[in-house]
Design a protein that fits this description.
Layout: H1 2-18, E1 22-25, E2 42-46, E3 49-53, H2 63-69
Antiparallel strand pairs: 1-2, 2-3
């Protein structure tokens, strides 16, 4: 189950890095929150730009989840 999510995160990371972003992935910790602030899987940085990324593997995000991000 976790391997599928790792593949999705790694694919997103590689695409961002190919576009010139420096990317930090949030590592997996058993029994702890695994995202940055419970919201994002990746933090990408370019000069004067920051991008926070949430990857999804199995389903589209719910309306409640989208509202939480806004």
């Amino acid at each position: 189950k976790r391997a599928k999510g790792n593949r999705t995160e790694l694919r997103a990371q590689k695409e961002l890095e190919a576009d010139g972003w420096k990317v930090q992935r949030c590592g997996y910790r058993r029994f702890q929150q695994n995202d940055f602030w419970g919201l994002w899987d990746l933090c990408a940085i370019k000069p004067n730009q920051t991008l926070l990324v949430q990857t999804k593997t199995n389903q589209k995000p719910s309306k409640e989840y989208i509202n939480k991000l806004l």
